[in-house]
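Throughout this chapter, every protein is written as a compact record of paired, labelled lines. An example of such a record is reproduced below:
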Amino acid sequence: MMRTEITFAVDESQCAAWLYEPDTTGPHPCVVMAHGFTLVREQRLDAYAERFAAAGLAVFLFDYRHFGASQGEPRQLLSIRRQLQDWEAAIAAARGLPAIDATRIALVGGSLSGGHVQTVAARDSTIAAVVAQVPWCDGLRNLPALGLGPILRLSLAGLRDVIGALLGQAPYYIPAAGPPGAVAAMTTPDAVTGLAKMTPPGSTWRNEVAARIALTIGLYRPGATAHRIRCPILYIAAEQDRIAPAQFVYDTARHAPHAELKRYPGGHFDVFVPPLWDEVVTAQVEFLERHLVRRSA
């Protein structure tokens, strides 16, 4: 296995990516990956990439604009529209590499990017397979669980950020994760500790996000596109998940024509780290081998 640092362009910015190439003869099937919400590639996605590469799959693992090693100003600006553009550009960049089989591209995303891979696959009928791990499916259904008070506080923070941007001011940031009751994007009891387990020393991750995302995240409903996903898609649900509730994942999977579903105990962040991680990634490797490697053979 070999890992190479590469870049690809999106509008005026350069996105950073790691290309993992397996120790087999190419061209290789390829998994395109990015993290969820404000997270960056070294927060456990490198562990997934190494397992996929060991199974004979190339991996194109990238950071979104405004985050991690990628360019984009202001920093920590989360735009769903921009992130979907980044996915499309990353897929095009992967397909253009000589070591990659452009007909065997899979998408793997978790949490918010688990929503993005559904949206992209619904638009692009040439995607060969998708893994959506603890995916964001329906923002409108998520809102009631927040409660009226937190919704109002986050909305006010979002409005402050938007008005400031219109006046030419720097973004108004809120924590990406905080304890219950805090004004933060994620305030479940496991959010702070879960992210700490995923973050290695020296990581580029910053626990902050421009507050304007609070005004749009509740309107993002990628699960509504599931009926248009024509390739095989593996949904991974965590039964005690309070960020991407398992019931929303079950309901979404029922509408995808070629869906498979795996259920695991634990919360949103448990699937990303040991001990549960090994079982989860093994299921993903089997799914990807079945639809990318064995299909070609």
Observations:
- The mean pLDDT is 96.
- The first strand starts at residue 2 and ends at 10.
